[in-house]
């Protein structure tokens, strides 16, 4: 089955076409551009490009996989709205995967690992994975010093992700170069069991983990002295 994969939870704007079979998952085409300010401008052209490269029309898709975050509100919703809209228009199921899983799962090669992405405001989104790649803590958002303490308590021996690169000195764990951003192959692989089983499509609920900066006023303020 041909599956479209999208993720916009980090500065890496990713679209890929994956083929899911009984034997495994392979990528047929992929586009990824790191630009924290251009999610809306880049994702749709990336989707168009991977379909064109593989010679596949949208009607040939059997499912859509999207990274659910955690991630900043504006960027994350671009990918989820795109995936949900295409799924509805094409009448194909949509499946969500925690974006940190697509960083931590492939990195946990026999030892516990911390996956961290940049949450801005001098914080990181984070999760911890055991030696088999299963998430055992998180996802959550905290300042790096708090995350460092949690990681030590969980016996973590390595870290990965853009947030780990940004705050390497504070987190204080051996740093791996890759993956720095969610892997399209990992996203498809983590959803593959549901795809093969033709599981019902899921509502793509974003993992924001914190409230947006802009909130509605709760009461009117008097203009009189």
From TrEMBL:
UniProt cross-references to Pfam families, sorted A to Z: TsaD (PF00814)
E.C. designation(s): 2.3.1.234
Keyword Chloroplast: no
Residue ranges of every copy of the Gcp-like domain listed in the record: 36-149
Alphabetized UniProt keyword annotations: Acyltransferase, Hydrolase, Transferase
InterPro entries: ATPase_NBD (IPR043129), Gcp-like_dom (IPR000905), T6A_TsaB (IPR022496)
Signal sequence coordinates: none
Enzyme superclass (EC): transferase
Keyword presence, Phosphoprotein: no
Domain of life (superkingdom): Bacteria
Protein name per its UniProtKB record: tRNA (Adenosine(37)-N6)-threonylcarbamoyltransferase complex dimerization subunit type 1 TsaB
Organism of provenance: Micromonospora cathayae
